[in-house]
């Protein structure tokens, strides 16, 4: 079958940099799925993207759909054939609808019933005729934010300026938002000499490069990285590259040229975090450090253009940055006059949420919650003292001018200002750490006090919103509750805190209820919170490669200590490949299945045992219970459960649990229920799939 290359390009006004990578991947996925759904063969898809274009080059696309054979199901045999053996009207109608005759019918059995079937040949259509369907794919792209322009109904990320759709040297004709497809693309907005007329799709990348557009995003990123490394090497500097910043800068330019500029050394008196944040967030500049790691009065930016007049460009950027840093210096100087007590008073007038109250009220709940958790964890008096003070003043920097200007510095400036005001290093560090982990790549709080306040603060946030019925759904999570719950889980796992999640949730929920915030019953909120945290643990276990059924099993039991739950899942995963795992799980599952018939756990009366197997299993149960109380790792506990498999099997072989004697039956069910309770401390093992 002959093949051609397919080029699709959407030309736009400059798009927001943060939208581009996800959108080009979305476009590629939709086109790939469309080709596969339509049985159109192709070799590979190359992705191109810049601030002004989203493009795909699909290599070696079949000129025609593959022919296919489709099986159609018709009426049951008893309906298709009359009593005299003749074909019924239903059979004739069925085949006519398929473009065939009754001679093409054959029968296949489905669930014990024979049905008429036919196979029909479908000739593939020319690919060129089908490519007009790309219009729907382009129009159907989704973006975080859309806009409308002129009098058009289409909502899109930015106005569409041109469209290229070429299949070989032919243009696939259609129109979107008043723009007709063609074979004409555009180069760099300022450096290109004119429009680019393409004669074949494979010319695309080279033709754009000739007009100052590096269309391949990875090549563009590699060029930026190479230029940064060259500047480093020539000057003996270190340029710490933030990958998120690099990605954003890459999506801001079509023809990258890196250059450096300077700022006054006096600005180095400002904390380096402020300078770096100002450079990154406001100007998209890369900071520069010395070999020893000290911040230098330099920056690197990436120009969307060539090397001409590069000195003027550098001076222009220096002028803009100087103004930014002057503002930062002013804010920092003004903040030196701020007193912590005065800042805390201001927080009494700052509303956190209209239904939750002020930040001061939230801080007081966090302080109480941290104290309650500390009591149960039996922390040292020093840790309790540091955590209490950190919780009390943890949000004071929110009313500083610096954090107002740079919200991402909350906590960081809190630590610095706290030290300046004479707070202990432990308290200051905890103020910064209580926001951690700030994102998926961030670490958890290092200090016990920081971890204590971090968990209390995040937990209060989650519980208050759940109490109002504000619960994440789908992709909607405006208050980042999932991220905060994941932070709590990660901290509990790494710190191995010996406190159950149920206890933590209960302590916080009590404080929220006392504050009169909740609009739902405590029972509803508690249930939703436990399920919410289970989902966070489930995702974490999936990332660790734990089998889905083992995850369901450990989450089906009591939640308990989070780090212990992870250990249970890993212990079951390790044991699942062992010989005898299937038989052990079947024996334990049998206990759980029988125990489910018992609603209320009663006492076991050994006097009512009728055979030695009941007694032996009872003795094993007592032994297991004592060892479980002493505490042990999950792998050892799993082995203890496996060790009672012979007693369980003997019990069921010689004992009828559902005895006709009611007293005996109740006693045996009590025994099963009691043993099931100990099994459930490991997992709901009857959810484990064994083969």
From TrEMBL:
Q: Does the keyword DNA-binding apply?
A: no
What is the enzyme's main class?
ligase
What are its E.C. numbers?
6.1.1.14
Localization terms from the record: Cytoplasm
| Keyword annotations from UniProtKB, A to Z | Aminoacyl-tRNA synthetase, ATP-binding, Cytoplasm, Ligase, Nucleotide-binding, Protein biosynthesis
Q: What is its main location?
A: cytoplasm
Q: Which domain of life is it from?
A: Bacteria
Q: Name one Pfam family in it.
A: tRNA_synt_2f
Which Gene Ontology CC terms are recorded? cytosol
Q: Where in this chain does the record put each DALR anticodon binding domain? A: 586-680
Catalytic activity as recorded in UniProt: tRNA(Gly) + glycine + ATP = glycyl-tRNA(Gly) + AMP + diphosphate
Q: Which GO terms describe its biological process?
A: arginyl-tRNA aminoacylation; glycyl-tRNA aminoacylation
Residue stretches in coiled coil = none
Assembly and binders: Tetramer of two alpha and two beta subunits.
Q: Which family does it belong to?
A: Belongs to the class-II aminoacyl-tRNA synthetase family.
Q: Name the chain's protein.
A: Glycine--tRNA ligase beta subunit
Report which gene this protein is encoded by. glyS
